[in-house]
Amino acid sequence: MFRKILIANRGEIACRVIRTARSMGVATVAVYSDADANARHVAMADEAVHIGPAPVRESYLLPDRIIEAAKRTGAQAIHPGYGFLSENAAFARACKEAGLVFIGPPPSAIEAMGLKGAAKALMEKARVPVVPGYHGDDQTPELLAKEAERIGYPVLIKAVAGGGGKGMRRVDSAREFAAALAGAQREAANAFGDQKVLLEKYLIKPRHIEIQVFADSLGNAVHLFERDCSVQRRHQKVLEEAPAPGMPPEMRKAMGDAAVAAAKAIGYVGAGTVEFIADVSDGLRPDRFYFMEMNTRLQVEHPVTEMITGQDLVAWQLGVAAGGKLPLAQDQLKITGHAVEARIYAEDPQKNFLPSVGTLHRLRAPAEDTHVRVDTGVREGDSVTPFYDPMIAKLIVWDADRTSALRRMRQALGEYQIAGVTTNTTFLIELVSHHAFVGGDLDTGFIERFRADLLPPIEPAPIHVLALAALAVTLERRASVTQAASKSGDPWSPWSAVDGWRLNDQGWDELLMRERDSDILCRIEYLSGGALRVHARDAETVVQGVIDSEGGLDAVIDGRRQRAGIVRRDDDLVVLLPGETHRLSIIDPRAAGDLDEAGSGLLNAPMPGKIVQVLVEEGASVEKGQPLMILEAMKMEHTISAPGRGKVAKVNFKAGEQVPEGASLLQIEAEG
Q1: Of 24, 70, 205, 260, whose CB has the highest number of CB atoms within 10 Å?
Q2: What pLDDT was estimated at residue 589?
Q3: What element of type H or E holds 76?
Q4: pTM (2 d.p.)
Q5: Residue 138 shares a structural domain with residue 217
Q6: How many domains does the chain have?
Q7: Among 40, 233, 297, 362, the one annotated catalytic
């Protein structure tokens, strides 16, 4: 076994590898960029080496710097994690030439599966079923359009060199093809440096089911069963589970055998995942699954496989890379129970899952035990930056059956408290609670199919939330006044009380709050014993309570106990309840004149990025929802659309320019 390894990655997966390495007595070396100098994976590792500025092209994607860091620290092997250089054959080869072990497959296997078109041709030779499509070298738009017609719409355009949903477009008709092709090629070039694409028949009701495979250098290969990754947004996985709901034993065997055959066909060594698409229009059938691609690395969702098999896949990786034999044979592996993984992202589902950046002012995860596991690379106080993937954590639950596992997932998601960025936790609760998901009616279009159910209009904060906010503000003011009074010469002065005292009248105050674009006037009556009667939005309630040292509010609302998380940053106040996050602003009426007026017509950048395309000119008339600009951020393209009918008064940036978050991109003058 190795004495020391370097992890050529960051965040959650780096922390995950460090945890197993430490349990095996293997020392670890982390690498980090400027943005990650204080990151969790850096703190966890035994050593850490700085490799460059924040952008990945200047740090985590530089093989020479990573290899130099390994040699300088005496590491014997490099674990690539996932993403970055994990599927880069040149990097794997460079490691070998430098006398380092690459903890992954041989370069030839990476190359064989790296180009999707060639990989599918190879799989056809190995008698692994593939989806009808076009995988040729001729990339002229005219030929690709003809091939799309031959395959039959709808078709899927996919980047040959990549994954993760980047460079992928569904096209439903010939008139959409040219624009979709240009967008896919542009996104592929930005993400992978290669704009080559392939075409596939788009299955109307597909399920994404993948098989975990493992092989050693002694000729042994096994599969560790399947994972269902059908629930996706933007072609990226959101929720994964193992085993796949409703999987017939004969189909599991057929898929497992096909996956092992795929691995053996390319001389595979290490952990890999063979991804299949299953046509479930007639249910799960052993003759209706097709090879999509093979990921020649450990997958993000590997924990669900670990939970149902009881195996540590990172430990398997280290053992195999050190020349060892697979720990178990196929007949020794078995499925126990059911596991589900939810990816906790800093993103706004209500804004088409737009990534959210900011500081994690509060981050409280559910307690871990034999049923609940949290894999994360961040801590409270860390920042989600525009440089890297916005995943905060992976929440994994296990139980004896799927129904019990989903119940645990709902409970664990409700226990998360996150403030400082917008997250998808409420969306995930809706997802795992949805009747169709619970019933196993899954396909890759699930989120779009049930979008109205999963993303209902945001309801205004109810009276109990406003009461908790009013109580938190009042308690904070009382604490501040009490502290100031204790330092004064007259701590018992009536002017030191926060009770809304008025001559010949019951004490009361007014508190003005804002929720999104709506102002809320709360009238607070001060009752005996420190209680408050809060009136707002034609409702009222009585509340009292205390704030603990960790920002938790223990309250009683109309006789019912309620615990909430409270996070106050300047004028922003976040109320955190089980499965709910309410963001409010405390408004000072004296400063109201300084507030921006709604409807200014300015369209601002939702995050830092690069303008890829400007679709309108100044003076052009636009309709509501019309695309105006395309912004590339976090390796994904985001469309800036017109909020209403109007005329383009000003375009402030041109294609190729970098823009900071909040920059005014265009100005639209409303019409009619």
Answers
A1: 70
A2: 60
A3: none
A4: 0.82
A5: no
A6: 6
A7: 297
